Amino acid sequence: MWRRYLMWFAHEHVDFRHAEMHSILSMYNIPIKFIEQPCINKPYWIVELPTEDHVKKIASRSVLVKNCIELWSHAKSQIKLHENLKKAIKNSERTWIVPHDSDDNGNHLSHICPSELIKACSSSDKSFKVEVETFCKHFSMQEKVDKIETFSYLPLEGPVKLKNPDIILSYFEFYGVDPNNVPEKPYDVFFGRWIVDGQRDLIQRHSLKRRQFIGNTSMDAQLSILMANQAQVVPGDVMLDPFVGSGSLLVAAGHFGAHVWGSDIDFMMLHARTRPTRVGQKERTKQESIRGNMRQYGIENRYLDVMVSDFSLPMWRDDVKFDAIVTDPPYGVREPTEKIGIDKENYTLTEEHRVNHVPSKVEYGLPHLYSDLLDFAAEHLEVGRRLVCWYPLVRDEYDEKHLPRHPRLQLVANSEQVISRWTARRLLTYQKLKVQDSSATTDPLAIAPNFREKYFSVGETTRKERKEKRAADMLANAEWRARATNDQT
Q1: Cα separations in angstroms, 57 against 53, 205, 249, 441
Q2: Which of 73, 306, 348, 396 is the most exposed place for a label (fewest CB within 10 A)?
Q3: Structure pTM?
Q4: Per residue in 13-37, pLDDT tens?
């Protein structure tokens, strides 16, 4: 019998929820049935899965899942929840009883679980406790105790143990997602046995505040883990970040068991010689490095190396393959988009200057950068494996058909992170297809124009508009004061 579960999510990075979950489900080949269709305005899924081990596998990877419980009852009110539970105690069938009544959305109003779920927790040698959680509302400790006491009819014979009990029973109340419009009664209530927590603790453990080596654009810990999940990184994989920077993505992939490579054109960053990012720090310490970050988290043995290289110039052998390519290319705003080159025509370098010559750089336009990135992934990814990268854009101009495309790569996930009122970046996940034509490439002209130019043009237009509006407001205010003065005289 498949078991029914409540998967409770953190209500942040909501647009990434489906992408992360479906990546994990397909990575472990886990079948799933939805009892209610997922809704972006609800921080939970009600699903059925074959076994409890499948739930634990999902939770072992997900950074957006807060916890999972084996669902015993779900209702729209506390009274109905208790009615369902009392009926469940007498339900000798090995399946859920689902009545025919439903709400306007087609969701069943009553869920009565088989009694065997409750009996499995009722023996006298199993200690237990009941926890109360709410979403969008706060309860005092006394209110929580009062709600816990309403479950006294459950046939639990074991002792109550508040610290490290054998069984944790969870009661949830959902009051919507608008903190400015909290209803008096909850929209949904749930009760069941706690199974497992997600990987939320990794956010603090991998926090940039605690990391030895960071840069101006180091990727947030939670987003780094999300990217590793969408890349379906598993132990033994070989992962590459071709725009590695300070190596945040290597840390996330290494945490999940991948062996990691990195490359970047910025010599100073890879050697930890750039200006310190932290406030008050005057110079880098000797311990700061990408390898030092890996050592900090106990995964130095998964660190292969990082190399100074220009991504626009081929460096890898044709037969080199990677299991994942996870990267955050520079956008030309906080970090420059550069490649080796020179604007001068017919430039030559004398032999005596070659030894100490430092190559000059020119702009590496985003259309060509993403074209090269997709071509590289199509050539060097294993079939069926994934490229995960960020793509910046102006929100008002977003059109999915303008996203980078490649005939040998399928776009399987596309999630938005809002940066400002006008700009955003989208996390794109591509999966390599088994296509015979290995010579197919990406056309740079098919990719949207340079984001940097748009970013600053939008900003300049906005500042100009603000100044004009401020001047118009001041003029209108002055005219109003003048009329008021004339009326008084």
Answers
A1: 6, 20, 22, 37
A2: 348
A3: 0.88
A4: 999 999 999 999 999 999 999 999 9
